[in-house]
Amino acid sequence: MTGCCFFPVTFERSRSRRGSFKLVRSSSSGSSKRGVNSRKGYDKGPLVVCFGEMTINLVPTVLGVSLADSHAFKKFPSGATANVAIGISRLGCSSAFIGKVGKDEFGYLLSDILKQNGVDNSGLLFDAHARTALAFYSLKSDGQPQFMFYRNPSADVVLLPEEIDMDLIKKATIFHYGSVSLIKEPCRSAHLAAMNAAKVSGCILSYSPTLQLPLWSSAEAAREGVMSIWNYADIIKVSVDEIGILTEGENPYDDKMIMKKLYHYNLKLLLVTDGARGCRYYTKDFKGWVAGFDVEEVDPTGAGDSFVGGLLSIVATHKLIYKDEKRLREALDFANACGAFTVTGRGAIPSLPTKDAVLRVLFSY
């Protein structure tokens, strides 16, 4: 088999699992610094280009406290599509990121993090008149997340269509994007222009909306924004909770409803993630469920992005995987293991796994 990515060993696993395990996190699976200084360092097979936002998350140093009760915060680099780009690179595959940050200390930090993790950062722009986006995030003692966003506007919002490196997009096998960039202009127009260029170039379009309602003016605006580009994607990943928002309270476990309301004619693969329960998959020809992994969860931040990175690292080499259910299930097993590893640490990017880390999860079962 050629290419940068691989299928994991096939495991015959039952749909239910007992027990749990605590991962031993090695230094190789942390925030590795690869020190890539040339374009050659990024050439690791078919390219996945990720478009969107990169932010600094400020997280309480003590677990389980609200933002108001926290006495100190630690900064974590983040951003849904940036997480995916770094996740893909950590797994040994080729990725690039397109977006904009402030021409400030945080912006330079985020650019360096992409580079250190082997991601092509040539599409990342700096704006001297807008700051890098900030987000305060806490996971309270009752398990509920709490967010406060500072983006009025942040640099990613003022990205212009003409600033995008379209030549980089044309090199891609997969073009991956989220939905935060759809909230305001001019970034929305930039998003649409990039997506159109990817479609014309023959890229697989991968869509993973992020329904952070505090970022939108209303739940209705979020639904309309997310669904406005829904029918263009080849692959879509949503969570169970997001289905509830998108369908205005319909049963997210109703397969018929999902096929009727969320599956569209051009879609190749629809994925619904459900935390430790795993994920469901839907294609034109078959549907099913792949069980997740019971791990000792520390922080769920970035688990969905890690899942997407794991899947796309395989799809980049196996474009027609949606036609082969056996291979698809193997790929989703791998993606579930990526997400499971990520929740065992704090912060999305520091907790994204390498191949070895994913295999440790798989072999633990």
UniProtKB/TrEMBL annotation:
Record has Flavoprotein as a keyword: no
Record EC number: 2.7.1.4
Domain of life: Eukaryota
CDD domains: bac_FRK
GO terms under cellular component: cytosol
Catalytic activity: D-fructose + ATP = D-fructose 6-phosphate + ADP + H(+)
UniProt record, GO biological process: fructose metabolic process
Pathway: Glycan biosynthesis; starch biosynthesis
Enzyme class: transferase
Pfam family, any one: PfkB
Carbohydrate kinase PfkB domain: residues covered: 47-354
GO molecular function, one term: fructokinase activity
Alphabetical keyword list: ATP-binding, Carbohydrate metabolism, Kinase, Nucleotide-binding, Transferase
PANTHER family: HEXOKINASE FAMILY MEMBER, PFKB FAMILY CARBOHYDRATE KINASE
Family as reported in the entry's similarity comment: Belongs to the carbohydrate kinase PfkB family.
The protein's role, per its UniProt record: May play an important role in maintaining the flux of carbon towards starch formation.
Protein name, as recorded: fructokinase
High-level lineage: Eukaryota, Viridiplantae, Streptophyta, Embryophyta, Tracheophyta
